């Protein structure tokens, strides 16, 4: 598919690079001409009305700049983010993948325009770093929130478009992260590296969201595409530091606090979830083992799996398992004896069980697949079912959080992330029931999309309509597009 698209690009577009910014001129017109004389798109046979409508809404939300396009974080908020979590990278990925499927040149223009805007915001400093928002002097390092996630997105753009300049920006991001990383040495693990959560900070986070786990994942992804040993080395340094931060419990169980205890003792707690907790750290160790074959990393991956199994809560009514959102005596809700159970990808079984699927694929141990399916069993038991559509409450366990008991459509906290999990479980097991729940999630999302007369479709939470991947329309549309083009 990629080679066919490469030939298509050569035949249809004249590509040039000016001051490091990739520009595109189509036989049908420039980016500016497309924006000024906005075209209403025909419905593509490969995309549903909802996905095409989401793309149209994002085109209407776009702001033309001298270099391309940028998007507000939310329909009514004129803040322009660069990060993967809420900003332009996820929107660019949606347009890029829509172009791959349809070969519609309008989608290409918006993908390239958004990528160009990201490039225009890059700051040279021993490589490339990105401000959190346009014209900001705040430079985060993390995967969801900062340069590591932006660099990861440039790897995706390189894989889709085969444009070497995108790999150049990914590698430039790695050079800045290497420059800003703090090297150390531990007698047990060897050379370590940790990263400040943002340039100038003295806080060094652990998690996927903003810490060493996410930065380590970026280095592994870059090594996989470039085969440059330096990137594998820094992924190992991240893993070595994470080993020094592990809390070892009886039975070779390992967990990690959200932040190093010596830096934030009042915030000291354990999260099982994928965004901020043990599941993503374990997942990183499993992938680090797969690439390095160093069995120390597998030991920590399986130790994370053992802790998650030990900390799971058996649900008598469903026969499945669930996980408390956090563990720690300093959490106010736990001091009151109140425990919450999230359902979503970032905090609940959807993300935790993704780790179990990956660990099963790494080890072939059926115990890990069993726990992925037990998590799915609990999720199925708490689903809201209506006419074959499935949705889920965001969080369970507290009757005073009415809003959170309602269904959320997003990737991070809601139905999109849960649907992604069921789709992955279906791919691994080929069990029809998991496909049914993934498809039911997609159907529910289609049923609640807000449509208007010009063909646009959007999804919101409490009346707010975000644009990005993890909290907004881009992530929902990516999931629907994936379901429609398996």
Model description:
The longest helix is centred in the N-terminal third of the chain and has 17 residues, at 105-121. The chain has helices at 2-12, 31-36, 49-61, 88-102, 105-121, 147-161, 164-180, 212-226, 229-245, 278-292, 295-311, 332-335, 349-363, 366-381, 402-405, 415-429, 432-448, 473-484; strands at 13-18, 21-26, 29-30, 63-64, 69-70, 123-124, 128-129, 182-186, 190-194, 247-249, 253-255, 313-315, 320-322, 341-342, 384-386, 389-391, 395-396, 450-451, 457-458. Helix 10 runs parallel beside helix 13 and helix 16 packs antiparallel against helix 17 (432-448). It has a three-stranded antiparallel β-sheet. It has a two-stranded antiparallel ribbon with strand order 4-5. It is globular and about 60 Å long. It contains 18 helices and 19 strands. A hairpin with a 3-residue loop joins strand 6 (123-124) and strand 7.
Shape: globular
The class by helix and strand makeup works out as mainly alpha
What's the end-to-end separation, in Å? Answer: 14 Å
Poorly predicted runs of 5 or more residues: 1-43, 399-404
Q: Give the count of helical stretches.
A: 18
The value of Rg in angstroms is 22 Å
Strand content: 5-15%
Helicity, in percent? 40-55%
Q: How many DSSP E strands? A: 19
Q: On the 0-100 scale, what is the average pLDDT?
A: 88
Main sheet specs: 3 strands, antiparallel
Strand order of the largest sheet: 1-2-3
Give a brief outline of the structure:
With about 475 residues, the chain is mainly α. Helix content is about 50%, strand content about 10%.
SSE blueprint:
Blueprint: H1 2-12, E1 13-18, E2 21-26, E3 29-30, H2 31-36, H3 49-61, E4 63-64, E5 69-70, H4 88-102, H5 105-121, E6 123-124, E7 128-129, H6 147-161, H7 164-180, E8 182-186, E9 190-194, H8 212-226, H9 229-245, E10 247-249, E11 253-255, H10 278-292, H11 295-311, E12 313-315, E13 320-322, H12 332-335, E14 341-342, H13 349-363, H14 366-381, E15 384-386, E16 389-391, E17 395-396, H15 402-405, H16 415-429, H17 432-448, E18 450-451, E19 457-458, H18 473-484
Antiparallel strand pairs: 1-2, 2-3, 4-5, 6-7, 8-9, 10-11, 12-13, 14-17, 15-16, 18-19
């Amino acid at each position: 598919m990629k080679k066919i698209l490469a030939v298509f690009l050569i035949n249809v577009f004249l590509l040039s690079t000016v001051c490091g910014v990739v520009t595109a001129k189509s036989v049908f017109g420039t980016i500016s001409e497309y924006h000024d004389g906005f075209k209403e798109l025909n419905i593509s046979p490969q995309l549903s009305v909802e996905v095409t409508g989401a793309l149209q809404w994002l085109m209407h939300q776009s702001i033309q700049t001298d270099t391309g396009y940028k998007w507000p974080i939310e329909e009514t908020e004129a803040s322009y983010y660069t990060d993967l979590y809420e900003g332009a990278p996820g929107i660019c990925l949606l347009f890029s993948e829509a172009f791959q499927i349809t070969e519609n040149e309008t989608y290409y223009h918006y993908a390239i325009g958004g990528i160009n805007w990201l490039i225009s915001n890059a700051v040279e400093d021993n490589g490339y770093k990105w401000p959190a928002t346009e014209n900001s002097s705040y430079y985060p390092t993390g995967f969801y929130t900062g340069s590591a996630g932006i660099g990861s997105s440039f790897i995706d753009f390189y894989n889709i478009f085969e444009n070497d300049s995108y790999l150049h920006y990914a590698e430039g991001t790695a050079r800045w992260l290497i420059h800003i990383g703090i090297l150390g040495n531990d007698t047990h693990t060897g050379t370590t590296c940790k990263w400040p959560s943002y340039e100038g900070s003295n806080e060094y986070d652990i998690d996927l969201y903003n810490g060493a786990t996410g930065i380590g994942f970026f280095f592994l992804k870059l090594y996989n595409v470039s085969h440059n040993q330096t990137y594998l080395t820094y992924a190992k340094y991240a893993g070595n530091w994470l080993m020094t931060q592990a809390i070892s419990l009886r039975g070779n169980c390992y967990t990690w606090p959200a932040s190093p205890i010596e830096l934030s003792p009042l915030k000291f707690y354990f999260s099982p979830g994928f965004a901020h907790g043990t599941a993503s750290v374990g997942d990183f160790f499993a992938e680090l083992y797969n690439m390095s074959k160093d069995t120390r990393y597998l030991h920590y991956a399986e130790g994370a799996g053992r802790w998650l199994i030990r900390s799971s809560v058996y649900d008598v009514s469903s026969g499945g398992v669930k996980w408390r959102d956090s563990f720690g005596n300093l959490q106010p809700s736990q001091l009151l004896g109140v425990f919450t159970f999230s359902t979503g990808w970032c905090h609940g079984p959807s993300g935790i069980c993704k780790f179990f699927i990956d660990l099963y694929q790494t080890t072939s141990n059926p115990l890990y697949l069993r726990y992925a399916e037990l998590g799915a069993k609990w999720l199925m038991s708490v689903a809201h079912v209506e006419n074959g559509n499935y949705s889920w409450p965001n969080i369970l366990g507290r009757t005073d959080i009415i809003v959170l008991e309602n269904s959320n459509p997003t990737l991070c906290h809601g139905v999109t992330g849960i649907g992604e999990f069921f789709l992955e479980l279906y791919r691994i097991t080929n069990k029809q029931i998991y496909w049914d729940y993934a498809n039911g999630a997609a159907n529910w999302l289609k049923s609640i999309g807000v449509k208007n007369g010009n063909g646009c479709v959007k999804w919101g939470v409490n009346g707010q309509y975000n644009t990005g991947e993890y909290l907004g329309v881009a992530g929902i549309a990516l999931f629907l597009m994936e379901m429609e083009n398996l």
